[in-house]
Amino acid sequence: MTLTNEELAKYLDHTNLKPDATREYIIKTCEEAAKYNTASVCVNSHWIPLVAEQLQNTDVNPITVVGFPLGETNTETKVFEAQTAIDDGAEEVDMVLNIGELIGGNTKFVTEDIKAVADAVHEKGKLLKVILETSYLNNDQIVAGSKASETAGADYVKTSTGFSSAGAKLDDVKLMRQTVGDRLGVKASGGIHSKEEALAMIDAGASRLGVSATVKILS
Questions:
Q1: Is 158 a catalytic residue?
Q2: What is the percent of the chain with per-residue pLDDT over 70, rounded to a whole number?
Q3: Pick the catalytic residue: 94, 113, 155, 172?
Q4: What angle do CA 108, 99, 208 make, to 5 degrees?
Q5: 107-123 vs 139-152: helix axis angle to the nearest 10?
Q6: Of 55, 68, 177, 195, whose CA is between 20 and 30 Å from 167?
């Protein structure tokens, strides 16, 4: 696939989830996103009010993460976290599903966990992405997590938090796209450091990319 930098930028969630990110660092991230006109800025929920303020005169969306990065917080906490972030200005929510329950085969719980957050997010008119954390999963579990996300009403499935042993892999993106068809978006996240890698993920089926190397990719 060939894309201009301007076209590629709208695939990118410019991400800063670093635990040591300061206010100044978050503002710099917003300035970079506004300069390149990315799809969004993705930050931890504490920073959403600041990011919403910084991006208010741009086309870049503030987005946040929920149950991050382990996915093991209880459902009610995930719902509250999502609702609060949206009230603070988030336009999209990326939640981590319950990885242990998925690996253990409890897809009923996984689906219900996602659905509770999806319902809360959609009630406020926003989008939900579900992070599978594919580095922990085999192919059958990736399929199961993707199907659970679709059944629960999510808008996207996403590969990774960026905090595990590996990020997005082309084969995983292809499998997720094959599983959800054109019914859901697929977000590849983690370990994408160049324009060539970004374009390869899009060719594999990704409709959004989570990247911290945005400036390098687009320059």
A1: yes
A2: 100
A3: 94
A4: 100
A5: 40
A6: 55
Catalytic residue among 78, 129, 158, 169: 158
- Give per-residue pLDDT as tens, 120-159: 999 999 999 999 999 999 999 999 999 999 999 999 999 9
Q: In the annotation, is 174 catalytic?
A: no
Answer yes or no: are the C-beta atoms of 33 and 60 closer than 8 Å: yes
Condensed to tens digits (0 to 9), the pLDDT of residues 25-38 reads 999 999 999 999 99
Query: In the annotation, is 94 catalytic?
Result: yes
The rounded mean pLDDT for the chain is 97
Q: Identify the CATH assignment for 5-218 out of 3.40.50.2000, 3.30.160.100, 3.90.1570.10, 3.20.20.70.
A: 3.20.20.70
Banded model confidence at residue 1, pLDDT cuts 50, 70, 90: confident
Rounded to an integer, what is the distance from CA 41 to the centroid of its chain? 11
d(C-alpha 74, C-alpha 61), whole Å: 27
Q: At what angle do helices 75-87 and 107-123 cross, to 10 degrees?
A: 20
| Residue 204: predicted pLDDT | 98
Calculate mean pLDDT across residues 70-75: 97
